[in-house]
């Protein structure tokens, strides 16, 4: 099972995110962003905890400006959650792990309820 969040890029976006059948969490970040560095270990922990349930990806906004622009990511870190290729939730700024878990659990409950 994957532990750390995998990298997403403009080139892999459609395959990794848009065509995914499971819930996808994408961390939009940059190397120079302090709050992004604070969130990074949380994102990796979530990737481990939700392995098999949630696909977790990280997208470097400096290297992939097209995707960041498409979703109007103006501040980082921004965490976007996708279901069936649609952005369904957005978190901006560094947040405690429990907030991420609450959103993930809520989205997973909705997802399984709809199945």
TrEMBL record:
Residues the record marks as site: Contributes to redox potential value: 34-35
Keyword Electron transport found: yes
Stretches of the chain forming a coiled coil according to its record: none
Thioredoxin domain ranges (all copies): 1-109
Annotated GO MF terms: protein-disulfide reductase activity
Site (Deprotonates C-terminal active site Cys) location in chain: 27
Pfam families membership: Thioredoxin
Active site: 33, 36
SUPFAM superfamilies (alphabetical): Thioredoxin-like
GO biological process: cell redox homeostasis
Keywords: Disulfide bond, Electron transport, Redox-active center, Transport
Cellular component aspect of the GO annotation: cytosol
UniProt signal peptide: none
Disulphide connectivity of cysteines: 33-36
Family, similarity comment: Belongs to the thioredoxin family.
Protein name: Thioredoxin
């Amino acid at each position: 099972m994957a532990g750390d969040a995998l990298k997403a890029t403009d080139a892999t976006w459609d395959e990794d995110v848009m065509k995914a059948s499971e819930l996808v969490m994408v961390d939009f970040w940059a190397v120079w962003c302090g709050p992004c560095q604070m969130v990074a270990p949380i994102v990796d922990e979530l990737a481990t905890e939700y392995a098999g349930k949630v696909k977790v990806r990280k997208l470097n906004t400096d290297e992939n400006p097209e995707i960041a622009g498409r979703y109007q990511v103006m501040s980082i870190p921004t965490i976007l959650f996708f279901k069936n290729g649609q952005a369904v939730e957005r978190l901006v700024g560094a947040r405690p792990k429990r907030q991420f878990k609450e959103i993930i659990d809520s989205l997973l409950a909705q997802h399984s309820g709809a199945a």
